Amino acid sequence: MVDQSFERFDDPVDGTVWQIDAEFLTSNWTCIWGKGCKGILPEDAEHLNQGCCSHGAQFLDVEESMNTGALAMMLEPERFQYYDEAQAGGIYADEERTLTRTVDGACIFHNRPGFAGGEGCALHLAALDEDESPTTWKPSVCWQLPLRAEDQPDGSRVLRHWARTDWDDEKSTIAWCCTEEPEPYVGETSVIESLEEELTAIVGPEVYVAIRKRLG
Ligand code: SF4
154 CA distance to ligand 1 centroid (A)? Predict the structure, then answer.
């Protein structure tokens, strides 16, 4: 676990002021899904291998929601364990289509252990099949985790890691939070390097280069 320590970066293109969690970005955190991740449930659930897919994914906006719905219709049953459920009941949890629905205790897109078409996110697997980046197929919250960008009242934006309290909106608890436990701090490089694609997509190439120059 690392403390949060923020540094300011100004985007020369659109003028956005970013407050960046330098401690986390220079740490060696790495996603350990399938390699010891205990999930986000009230009890350690490594055996379920759900990672952070136990909840439905909240869409950023209507465009992302519609895009995900369209991509879901393109998935093949060989790659998508819950294909039949998606065909029958759709992929949305609510009428407003603000998040994906859960089936059998996890996101409908999450293929479970033992599924012949591949374990994990069906959208992620399909993107790799097409030689495309999963960032263009998955809802943004899914590819950004554990990074979290937030608008501030003064117009600036904060980039930090997810914290236990971010999962806790209904006063429930999670047994294990990957950014606050020691196990994921075993990466071979810093987050700046390992999450280059994700960071660039969030802050833009100019700010990413500046981060790398100052902190990398
Ligand atoms: S981001 Fe964290 S909770 Fe999600 S799969 Fe990776 S290690 Fe597990």
Answer: 31
